[in-house]
Write a structure and sequence with these properties.
Layout (H helix, E strand, L loop, with lengths): L3 H14 L2 E5 L3 H12 L3 E5 L3 H11 L3 E3 L11 E4 L3 H9 L8 E4 L19 H8 L4 E5 L5 H6 L7 E6 L2 H13 L3 E4 L6 H17 L15
Parallel strand pairs: 1-2, 1-4, 2-3, 4-5, 5-6, 7-8
Antiparallel strand pairs: 6-7
Helix pairs in contact: 2-3, 4-5
Bound molecules: NADP nicotinamide-adenine-dinucleotide phosphate.
Length: 226
């Protein structure tokens, strides 16, 4: 029999986590976020360069997902996810409407054109460069170590960890809630400057998945031992 107290607690948690989330980009990751976060009960809007790609992602995701014009994505969202290539992220945010004060998740791995390495690192990161480009937004790095198929498929036998880093405590809590609501385990990886470590970790994940042949059904995780 269902425990009524537990059912009430779950309901409160669901209410706490339900958000209006705008996704900029409707490719591998944008589509996977739309599917996963709609399944978690969030209200999703999505946009892309080609509006038909956003329409396709919205109808494939099912649930509470609608395609919107790029310039309107920020206005209707409490939290934004930039799911474009890193090189397009600042421009895409600039064209999204007023993002000041908004929590923005940067998921990018700033890959070189031949995928052999990263274009930013050591003294900065993609996340910090995006923060500089849109200083009014509250950037949180997250999900860059999660392959799109892992994101789309959601909770399985292993609770996949999502490392997140940022400088704004409230924005980080909002992102923690989104991560938990989607069935992942949030791991607080510190300030935004630690994206300098998360992005190489994303690159290592890509190496293991593609170059070393382990496929995209993998994810890094931190274990407690002893
Ligand atoms: N793929 C993965 O498994 C994975 C895992 C972790 C992190 N990431 C990161 O996630 C990001 C997206 O990767 P992806 O594989 O989803 O890329 P993708 O499949 O190529 O999709 C990119 C999306 O961005 C849109 N876009 C590009 N420029 C835009 C702009 N100026 N304004 C609005 N939308 C724009 C594209 O629109 P159109 O559809 O109209 O072309 C497309 O929908 C990258 O930064 C990547 O490093 C990817």
């Amino acid at each position: 029999m269902r425990d009524p107290w537990q059912a009430q607690t779950n309901l409160q948690e669901d209410e706490r986590h339900r958000m209006k989330i705008g996704i900029i980009g409707a490719g591998n990751m944008g589509s996977a976020f739309a599917k996963r976060l709609a399944a978690a009960g969030h209200e999703i809007s999505i946009t892309a360069q080609d509006p038909s790609h956003a329409e396709q992602a919205a109808s494939a995701a099912g649930g509470n997902v609608r395609a919107v014009a790029h310039g309107q994505i920020a206005a209707g969202a409490e939290l934004l996810i930039v799911a474009t290539p890193y090189a397009a992220a600042a421009e895409a945010l600039g064209a999204a409407g007023d993002v000041s004060g908004k929590t923005v998740i940067d998921i990018s791995n700033p890959l070189s054109a031949d995928f052999s390495g990263l274009t930013v690192g050591f003294t900065s990161s993609a996340a910090e460069e995006i923060q500089k480009a849109v200083p009014g937004a509250r950037i949180v790095k997250a999900f860059n170590t999660v392959f799109a198929p892992v994101l789309a498929s959601g909770p399985g036998a292993t609770r996949v960890q999502v490392l997140f880093a940022g400088d704004d405590a409230a924005a980080k809590e909002a992102v923690r809630g989104v991560i938990e609501s989607a069935g992942f385990e949030p791991v607080d990886a510190g300030p935004l400057s630690n994206a300098r470590y998360l992005e190489p970790l994303g690159m290592l994940n890509i190496y293991l998945g593609f170059m070393a042949g382990r496929g995209t059904g993998i994810a890094p995780g931190w274990q407690s031992v002893g």
